[in-house]
Amino acid sequence: MSSFRTARTPRVRLVGAAATVVVAALSLTACNDGTGVHSEGRATGTATTAAPSTTPASPPQDKPSAGTGQDSGTDASAPATKGPAGKAPAGKDSASKAPGASGANGGAGGSGTPVTCEGSVTRTTAAPLTRPVNHMLLTVTNTGSRTCFLYGYPAVRFGGAQAVPPVIEDSQPQAVVTLEPGQSGYASVNLAATDGSGANGHTVNSLTVYFQGRSGSGSVGTGAHPSLPAKGVYVDDSLKVTYWQQSMDDAVSW
């Protein structure tokens, strides 16, 4: 009996040990299937969470940058239709209308709109010349705030004459005389024949100068009444005038 018991005990212990090994193996397998996988999942999650925190410097910067760009684009387009910036177009319209309504110097057409030179915007003087003899120089100065054009030639009337003298056709300039504010234009008047061949010579004490318009027919605006020397000037039937000239030298050369 004792031998039998002795023989069985080792076998029981061996079986028990084998069972223990099997249980341990199963436990290890279960640990690997459960706890091990779970632990790896946590490790992976931790790695995923850590990556953004260590590599993100660029993503946060990129996102604000992109966001700012989009916001700016939205803000830039908004002023065109609404918001305080929407008033800008109205301001521009007002500014663009201002010069047309009144120029830097005032006036209906602005300082850049030329007008016809005539008595109300000019000052006219008449000065007898010693050279050429029997000549008189007319000087017209623009006293207005806008450029004016001196068209054609002066229609002069001495004393109570019923007609104006003819113009020297060859004296016509290449272009219309243009006077900026403060500038002057000129014309000369041949008062009498230098050789005494003129008829109906007489002395006159008053002079009226009329201005032509662009069409060249008739006078426009107000006439000028320049003073003559106290003793008057002598004129005869050879009386004639030059076209308006831009320079004094051109005026007295005829």
Automatic annotation (TrEMBL):
<protein>
    <submittedName>
        <fullName>DUF4232 domain-containing protein</fullName>
    </submittedName>
</protein>
<feature type="compositionally biased region" description="Gly residues">
    <location>
        <begin position="103"/>
        <end position="112"/>
    </location>
</feature>
<keyword id="KW-0732">Signal</keyword>
<feature type="domain" description="DUF4232">
    <location>
        <begin position="117"/>
        <end position="245"/>
    </location>
</feature>
<feature type="compositionally biased region" description="Low complexity">
    <location>
        <begin position="43"/>
        <end position="56"/>
    </location>
</feature>
<dbReference type="Pfam" id="PF14016">
    <property type="entry name" value="DUF4232"/>
</dbReference>
<feature type="compositionally biased region" description="Low complexity">
    <location>
        <begin position="76"/>
        <end position="102"/>
    </location>
</feature>
<feature type="region of interest" description="Disordered">
    <location>
        <begin position="32"/>
        <end position="119"/>
    </location>
</feature>
<feature type="signal peptide">
    <location>
        <begin position="1"/>
        <end position="32"/>
    </location>
</feature>
<dbReference type="InterPro" id="IPR025326">
    <property type="entry name" value="DUF4232"/>
</dbReference>
